[in-house]
From TrEMBL:
InterPro entries for this protein: DAGK, DAGK_sf, UDPK
Cofactors demanded by this protein: Mg(2+)
Protein name as it appears in the record: Diacylglycerol kinase (ATP)
Major localisation: membrane
Keywords linked to the UniProt accession: ATP-binding, Cell membrane, Kinase, Lipid biosynthesis, Lipid metabolism, Magnesium, Membrane, Metal-binding, Nucleotide-binding, Phospholipid biosynthesis, Phospholipid metabolism, Transferase, Transmembrane, Transmembrane helix
Alphabetized Pfam families for the sequence: DAGK_prokar (PF01219)
Length: 128
């Protein structure tokens, strides 16, 4: 597809944003893990607000997990397009992409526990 002008063109930006939103909608509709991760992010961000904790680490951790899940879905789609039958390298690509999601999720869990854990425990100990 040809570029329609300058990278700074508002028309080009809106067109690109439309493609991105379309991708987000498709992945949300078709990928159960992405939906779970979106709602886990909403819960974590809500706790951040309720507990008055710094939002930046939670926002970044959530964005990382959701971004890696989007990339995992893209890798799976491209591998399925290139090699519909089972192939050892297709398995490696899909497993590595899934591993990236797992690693990002574990990192986000550690960030959540370190940022949200202490104030949540204090709230539980002292009563709401």
């Amino acid at each position: 597809m040809r570029s329609d002008g300058s990278a700074l063109s508002p028309r080009r930006w809106w067109r690109s944003a439309g493609f991105a939103v379309s991708g987000l909608r498709h992945v949300y509709r078709t990928q159960a893990n992405f939906r779970i991760e979106v709602w886990a992010a909403a819960l974590a961000l809500s706790l951040t607000w309720v507990l008055h904790t710094p939002p930046a680490p939670i926002v970044l951790a959530c964005a990382l997990v959701l971004s890696v899940e989007l990339l995992n879905t893209a890798v799976e789609a491209v591998v399925d397009l290139a090699t519909p039958e089972l192939h050892p390298l297709a398995k490696v690509a899909k497993d590595a992409a899934a591993g990236a999601v797992l690693l990002a999720s574990l990192g986000a869990l550690l960030v959540g526990c370190s940022v949200l854990g202490p104030p949540l425990l204090a709230l539980i100990r002292h009563g709401a």
